[in-house]
Amino acid sequence: MDKRHKAKRLAIFNHKGGVGKTTLTVNVAAAIAEMGKTVLLVDSDPQCNLTSYLVEASVVDAMLDASDSATGRTVWSALKPFAENNGDIRIVKPQTVRDLLLLPGDIQLSAFEQDLYSSWTESFQRRVKGFRGTSALSLLVNKLCEHHDVDFVFYDSGPNIGPLNRSILLDCDFFIIPAACDLFSIRAFKTLGQTLYNWIRDWDTVLKLAPEDVYLLPGRPRLLGYIPQRFRQYGGGVASDYQRLLPRIQKQIIADVATVLRRIDQSLASTSLTDNRLGMIKDFGRLALDAQKEGKAIWEVGNAVERNAAKTAFMDLADNIIRRSREW
User: How many Cβ atoms from other residues are within 10 Å of residue 6's Cβ?
Assistant: First the structure.
């Protein structure tokens, strides 16, 4: 049986759309890579936002057109033989983009997600096919970590609570909540906490049913913390009620996520405000949009003052993530 690689696996996750998941993921990963760590980005969103951020549009189109071929290099190219019952997972070579390793996304990943519905049911029926299907993406990532001696893996996932995100979160060692300062994001915390609770409890049952010689998801995602931020992915505006809503964000994350997870296992979350807040990201609205257009980190666009402020913020955030993941 494959042994799980030591790389830390994380997702900046909130099923609410428009909270800057992809922007945060790219910039945090770039900051960690700048600290000398090997970082693998896995674009597990069928919309391919992460890939589109980092790779020129014409190159993305070419990759997607070739993803069904023997030379395909997307996440679907790797999973396709297994998903279509034609063989095992195929190891593809990640793209190297700005000191980051990228496993490109693919719109055809949505078809694989549909198969995960039956894989989940088959796992409860003790069918090996179900265990293998649910853990297929994790096994692919594991093999890439071994081949490239990866230190950190960041999944970028779509804004939903579907079966693909379930497999991703149950594969993660840690997850981080991006917290936009608006009421819709705050209301989403309760659904997020309850959904994770159900996923973990259900997978606990599966683990008791599974044979010992099957590669399985660990099923213990821990809340590493949250990142309150004022830039919005769409439009670049500032949340005008930032200061008013920040205390409520902190309170609701503790009540709706951390406390709920601790009902399963107290090691899954801390209820300390100090422990949970990893950093605060100020308004980088215009810079965030410019960075996306140019495929750069936020601290590589704008004037000198803006670049220095952005780099300091993200390097501090990256340092906190590395430190906290080591301490836990």
Answer: 10
DSSP β-bridge partners for residue 174: 10, 222
**Residue 267: strand, helix, or coil:** helix
Q: pLDDT for 213-245, tens place per residue? A: 899 999 999 999 999 876 554 444 444 566 677
Distance (Å, rounded) from C-alpha 128 to C-alpha 211?
8
Q: Does domain 8-327 have CATH number 3.40.50.300?
A: yes
- Encode pLDDT of 262-283 as tens digits: 999 999 999 987 778 898 887 7
Spatial separation of the C-alpha atoms in residues 300 and 291, rounded to whole Å: 7
pLDDT in tens, 162-211: 999 999 999 999 999 988 766 777 788 999 999 999 999 999 999 999 99
The values of phi and psi at residue 234, to 5°, are: -110, 110
Domain range annotation of the chain: 8-327
> Which amino acid, residue 294?
E
Task: Provide the residue count of the chain.
Answer: 328
pTM of the predicted protein model: 0.94
